[in-house]
Amino acid sequence: MKRNKITRSLFALLLLCFAGAWQGCSDKSSAAGDLPILGERQVVQREADGRQVTDTVYHTIPDFAFINQDSQVVTSLTVQDKVYVTDFFFTTCPTICPKMKSQMLRVYEAFKDEPQLVLLSHTIDPKHDTVAVLRDYADRLQVSSDKWHFVTGEKDSIYSIAMQYMVTALEDEQEPGGFVHSGAFVLVDQNRHVRGIYDGTDPAQVDKLIQDIPALLPKKNKKKDAN
Amino acid sequence: MAAGIAALLTLTQCFTDKQNEGERLYTQYCANCHMDDGSGLRNLIPPLAGADYLVNHRDELACIIQHGQTGNIVVNGKNYNQGMPAFEHLNKGQITNILNYVQTNFGNSNPRFTIPEVEKQLFDCRHLLEQ
């Protein structure tokens, strides 16, 4: 009777161990890169070698061209083959922007030495946020412009690219500061697919973003093999 | 008896509410920029934690909250020039509570404000309301 009890509890313990190992396993696999591709997708039929094949076309960020704090043109080529995190803000924002920027700084610091990751902050108030204003802002944040681009451009292009990133950005006189915008940080991969959207005002979500980014970066040891 | 207890309860409720008002208002109106711990943001937003400005410019603090601030200022030896919005809807009691929260948190232990002191400061900068 007593023995029975012990074996039973041993068995339970063993099960628990397995569960733990399993958990550990699945954790690892998510770190290895199972981030979904977000946005609308289309299934396209086409003919190849006389047979019908089905392709899935994922939502892709279209080409863009903006100007950064150094008056340099930042385009889709600037982020080619790179992973980037993007957001929308304005320098005179009386609400969530400073919090977003303090969280984006965490991402910046965590990947300071990772050339494959860049940050791209768009102003939604290009009338006020000229290159000079963005320059001053970036200087005061003490960040380098190779890594973190603060961009301005045609208002319409900025607002329409925000939609592509699935981020809300609107002008609204009723709102404090004159704009409505979300505090989202959008994670984009080398193919310009959106792989994650995080609340940039929430430290826990930004922790998650920092954890997720390496899954999209080229594997360090693979790179060594190639060299 | 029951009424007495109820009255006492509401009274203490009221009292603790007032005590927390400074923190609540700080979180609502200030923490976005000055951060929850008063640390500010690099060279963009000045800190409130350990800020010499709170001591050296004590007489201006109520007006800074009510009317905002623009132009270059120096806090702990660093220049800031970003612009803080006005909070014209806050009344003298609320401003007093926020200031006392700032003066006694984030590692600060500066003397507290009284409502008459805040009232006097606001009186001296009342012309800013009329522009």
SSE blueprint:
The complex is a heterodimer of chains A (227) and B (131).
Chain A lengths: L1 H30 L9 E8 L2 E8 L6 E3 L5 E3 L7 E7 L7 H14 L6 E7 L7 H11 L6 E4 L3 H10 L4 E3 L7 E3 L2 E5 L5 E6 L3 H14 L3 H7 L1
Parallel strand pairs in A: 5-6, 6-7
Antiparallel strand pairs in A: 1-2, 3-4, 5-10, 8-9, 10-11
Helix pairs in contact in A: 2-5
Chain B lengths: L1 H33 L18 H4 L4 H7 L5 E3 L2 E3 L11 H12 L11 H10 L7
Antiparallel strand pairs in B: 1-2
Helix pairs in contact in B: 1-4, 3-4, 3-5, 4-5
Summarize the structure.
Chain A has helices spanning 2-31, 97-110, 131-141, 155-164, 203-216, 220-226, and strands at residues 41-48, 51-58, 65-67, 73-75, 83-89, 117-123, 148-151, 169-171, 179-181, 184-188, 194-199. Chain A starts with a helix and ends with a helix.
- Cα separation of the termini of chain A: 64 Å
Helix content of chain A: 25-40%
- Which chain pair shows the most residues in contact? A-B, 17 and 12 residues
Evaluate the radius of gyration of chain A. Answer: 22 Å
Q: Give the integer mean of the pLDDT values of chain B.
A: 89
CATH architecture grouping of chain B: Orthogonal Bundle
The top-level CATH class of chain B is: Mainly Alpha
- What separation lies between the terminal Cα atoms of chain B? 54 Å
Global shape of chain A: globular
Quaternary structure classification:
heterodimer
Mean pLDDT of chain A: 85
Describe this structure in words.
Chain A: Belongs to the SCO1/2 family. Chain A: InterPro entries: SCO1/SenC, Thioredoxin-like_sf, Thioredoxin_domain. Chain A: Pfam families: SCO1-SenC. Chain A: Keywords: Copper, Signal. Chain A: This is SCO family protein. The complex is a heterodimer of chains A (about 230) and B (about 130). Chain A has a single domain (about 1-25, about 35-220), classed as Glutaredoxin (3-Layer(aba) Sandwich), CATH 3.40.30. The N and C termini of chain A lie far apart (about 65 Å). Chain A is built from 6 helices and 11 strands. In chain A, the strands form 4 sheets. In chain A, strands 7-6-5-10-11 form a 5-stranded mixed sheet. A two-stranded antiparallel ribbon of chain A has the order 1-2. A two-stranded antiparallel ribbon of chain A has the order 3-4. With about 230 residues, chain A is of the alpha+beta class. Chain B is mostly helical and about 130 residues long. Chain B has one domain: Cytochrome Bc1 Complex, Chain D, domain 2. Chain B is about 50% helix and about 5% strand. Chain B has helices spanning about 1-35, 55, 60-65, 90-105, 115-125, and strands at about 75, 80. In chain B, strands 1-2 form a two-stranded antiparallel sheet. In chain B, helix 3 (about 60-65) crosses helix 4 (about 90-105). The termini of chain B are far apart. The interface of A and B includes residues 97, 99, 139, 140 and 141 of A.
